[in-house]
Design brief:
With about 250 residues, the chain is an alpha+beta fold. About 15% of the residues lie in helices and about 35% in strands.
C-alpha cells in the first residue's frame, strides 16, 4: 500500500473553501468518503485525495509524496478564510469486504474495499491492491496520474471523482469543455500483455508511439493510449500488447 498523509481542516469556512477548489461535491462527506482532485487553472492534475467528515472537521487523505505540495497550495488558496490546516496524526487502514464500524467504502469502485482512519499504523496488509487497480481501471498518483494528466482521460467520471453540477472549482472550465464539447482521443485503457515489459515502456504500433505501459500485473496492465494509433498488435519492449478497442 502506498504511503499516505492525512490532513485535518478545521474552521467555519472549511467546506466552502474546499467546495471552491476541488472537482467533487464536498457535501457528499455527510454520506461517506468523497474522492476528488485538485487541478491547475489549465485543468491538469495536481493531486487526488479522499475527503471524510470528522465532526465539524474534514480529513484529507492524500499520497504522502504530495503532502508538502498540498500544504503549500491549500495555504496559498485559503487567504483570509477561517480554515486551519494541520497534520491529523492518523493512519490509513484498508481492507476488503464489509467496512468495519469506523470504515467507509472506497467510492472509486466497490472492489477497492474500505478505508478507515486510526491512531496507529496498519500492522499487515496482504491484499494485492495493484492487481485490483488494474482489473478495475483505478489509476494511482505518480503512475497513471501525472502533472500532464487531464482527469477525464484517466476515468475520473467513472471513478465518481468529478461532479459536473456542483459549480465552479479550479480547472472547472477546461474539464467541463472536455466533457461536453470534445471527443477524447487519448486515455487509460486495460490491455493484455504477453512477454517482458516494465511499467513506463512505450507502446509501439509499427513505427509509431501508440501509448505507454503503466501499472501491470502478470498478463494485464493499464496503458495510456492514443486511440487513433492503438490498432492491431502492438509491442512494448519485448512484449506483445493487445487492446480490445477499435481495430482489434
Amino acid at each position: 500500500m502506498s504511503e499516505r498523509h492525512i490532513f485535518r481542516l478545521s474552521g467555519s469556512d472549511t467546506r466552502s473553501f474546499l467546495q471552491n477548489l476541488v472537482t467533487n461535491d464536498v457535501n457528499g462527506i455527510d454520506k461517506g468518503l468523497v474522492y476528488a482532485a485538485l487541478l491547475t487553472p489549465q485543468g491538469k492534475y495536481m493531486a487526488d485525495f479522499f475527503l471524510a467528515a470528522d465532526g465539524h472537521d474534514v480529513l484529507l487523505d492524500a499520497e504522502a509524496d504530495q503532502a508538502d505540495m498540498l500544504r503549500m497550495r491549500l495555504n496559498m488558496y485559503k487567504l483570509r478564510a477561517d480554515v486551519v490546516l494541520s497534520d491529523a496524526e492518523l493512519f490509513v487502514h484498508r481492507g476488503l469486504g464489509d467496512p468495519p464500524a469506523d470504515g467507509m467504502a472506497d467510492p472509486r469502485h466497490s472492489a477497492m474495499g474500505w478505508r478507515a482512519f486510526r491512531d496507529h499504523p496498519q500492522s499487515g496488509d496482504d491484499v494485492d491492491w495493484t492487481a485490483l487497480r488494474v482489473a478495475h481501471m483505478v489509476p494511482e498518483a505518480g503512475v497513471e496520474l501525472t502533472p500532464d494528466t487531464f482527469i477525464l482521460e484517466v476515468g475520473f467520471e467513472a471513478l465518481h471523482g468529478v461532479d459536473f453540477r456542483k459549480g465552479c472549482y479550479v480547472g472547472q472550465e477546461v474539464t467541463a469543455r472536455m466533457k461536453h464539447k470534445t471527443t477524447l482521443r487519448k486515455g487509460l485503457r486495460q490491455v493484455a500483455v504477453s512477454g517482458h515489459a516494465a511499467p513506463g515502456t512505450p507502446i509501439m504500433a509499427g513505427d509509431k508511439v501508440a501509448g505507454t505501459l503503466l501499472s501491470r500485473t502478470e498478463d494485464a496492465a493499464i496503458a495510456y493510449l492514443r486511440f487513433d494509433r492503438a490498432a492491431g498488435p502492438m509491442t512494448a519492449g519485448e512484449a506483445t500488447v493487445t487492446w480490445s478497442g477499435p481495430g482489434n
